[in-house]
Amino acid sequence: MADNPLYDIRDERFGALVIGSASLEELYSGCRWTEGPVWFSDLNCLLWSDIPNERMMRWTTDGTVSVFRSPSNYVNGNTRDRQGRLISCEHGGRRVTRTETDGTITILADSYKGKRLNSPNDVVVHSDGGVWFTDPTYGILSDYEGHKAEPEQPTRNVYRIDPASGAIEAVVEDFIQPNGLAFSPDETKLYIADSGSAKHEVPRHVRVFDVIDGRRLANSRYFCSLDVGNPDGFRFDVSGNLWTSASDGVHCFSPDGALLGKILVPQTVSNLTFGGPKKNRLFITATRSVYSIYTKTNGAQYP
């Protein structure tokens, strides 16, 4: 393990999570900025966003890569709901959408209190069907990853879409630039990254909140900070370890917030997800490329 240059080991517990002989495989290159990987186990494929090229790409287990959707309306983050439908955050439309099984697109949210959203960034779905997403301004800062515009919302919020009524509610309003988010495996906590340090003198940190009745957040507190780069997207394994993107690779934090180790990647990492038949393959979107590496642990996301 110590001889594998892919790993920067900070805690002996990291050895139980990674494979010493594993290699980092580049599955595809040629994008401008990759984001939003989501695994479809029923189709044996990975989808991801190439935001500046305004397209979504698809990789299948036989190595084939194709365009899934173009134009994509500058889609960024993606996930699936418990029915297996694709949920996406569109910079271009400044909205959150759901792709139905027949391919039609349903708008879930595009405004709050009568004003347009900023540019929805990342999204997760609770087991009760509630859709939670972050809304920083990255997609309206220029025409590179969306359409340049002035924000209409006074703050950069985290929202919840009620599964029954479709009503949208701001659950957190004090982030500089909320970015990646994920529920703990038991859904008792929600973790949210603040990537505002790219433009402001604030920590490169992830905060954690208690989830109350599946609808509200309470007891905001610091969870961890990155020593290199800004936190973007992250996911959990079944043991509650948080795997997050960073500028030098993927950082793994224990449930108590300790940095266990890093998987070093030659490009700046934006996001990641677990996939494969056993959910033990980590798929990594990093600047121009998509990588994968097998692990000893398994991802906690559904379906």
Automatic annotation (TrEMBL):
Binding annotation for a divalent metal cation: 35, 179, 232
Organism encoding this protein: Rhizobium vallis
UniProt cofactor note: Binds 1 divalent metal cation per subunit.
Keyword annotations: Hydrolase, Metal-binding, Zinc
Listed transmembrane segments: none
Cofactor(s) needed for function: Zn(2+)
Catalytic residue list: 232 (proton donor/acceptor)
A Pfam match: SGL
Keyword Methyltransferase: no
Protein name according to UniProt: SMP-30/gluconolactonase/LRE family protein
Positions with a binding annotation for substrate: 121, 145
Domain of life, per lineage: Bacteria
